[in-house]
């Protein structure tokens, strides 16, 4: 009988120890989870630290299981993507004009350019535009007198481009040539891995060079 009581006591102690371990594990596991709002705030803050102001549209269901480890991996992914991206928002492809024979009178000419704008990284989005600039030149002096018209058209395949606008231009002269600065606004929107939509709106200046 004494042996039986001793065995019961030992089993009771072991059971209590096991239950305590399970409770401790449960508490530890609970602390490893974060809410969707905490995740969203951390993602927005990470983009902000990298110089990008974004908006975040919530998914229809925000009861999503997200751990701190998942958040850390997502923040690391954002940093890696930003660092690997080309920071130049536009890739310039200049079209050189044909040689012009001197003429003692003004002439009108059209030059064509292609420019690309990307989101914080090309992984998130990009778009391509054709730019047509009609200008007046002076054949005698090989100079650009003025700009007649500018036409901006979005072309080809784009990724996650949700909106864009052309907001006007300015120009400066250097020697016989002119730099034309086109002011653009773009909005790119893409899905976050854990739900919701991220949108990034930014201003861009595209440069085109005209040769008289």
UniProtKB/TrEMBL annotation:
Ranges in coiled-coil conformation: 61-95
Q: Which UniProt keywords apply?
A: Coiled coil, Signal
* Organism the protein comes from: Robinsoniella peoriensis
Q: Which residues form the signal peptide?
A: 1-24
- Know the name of this protein? Uncharacterized protein
């Amino acid at each position: 009988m004494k042996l039986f009581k001793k065995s019961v006591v030992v089993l009771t102690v072991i059971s209590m120890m096991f239950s305590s371990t399970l409770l401790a594990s449960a508490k530890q596991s609970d602390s490893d989870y974060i809410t969707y709002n905490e995740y969203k705030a951390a993602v927005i803050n990470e983009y902000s630290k990298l110089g990008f102001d974004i908006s975040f549209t919530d998914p229809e269901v925000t009861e999503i299981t997200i751990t701190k480890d998942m958040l850390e991996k997502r923040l690391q992914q954002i940093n890696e993507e930003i660092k690997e991206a080309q920071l130049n928002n536009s890739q310039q492809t200049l079209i050189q004009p044909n040689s012009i024979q001197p003429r003692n009178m003004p002439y009108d000419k059209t030059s064509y350019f292609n420019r690309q704008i990307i989101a914080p990284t090309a992984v998130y989005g990009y778009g391509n535009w054709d730019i047509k600039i009609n200008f007046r030149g002076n054949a005698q002096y090989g100079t650009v007198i003025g700009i007649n018209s500018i036409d901006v058209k979005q072309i080809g395949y784009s990724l996650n481009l949700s909106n864009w606008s052309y907001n006007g231009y300015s120009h400066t002269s250097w020697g016989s040539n002119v730099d034309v600065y086109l002011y653009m606004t773009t909005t790119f929107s893409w899905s976050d891995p854990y739900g919701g939509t991220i949108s990034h709106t930014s201003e861009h200046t595209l440069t085109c060079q005209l040769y008289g």
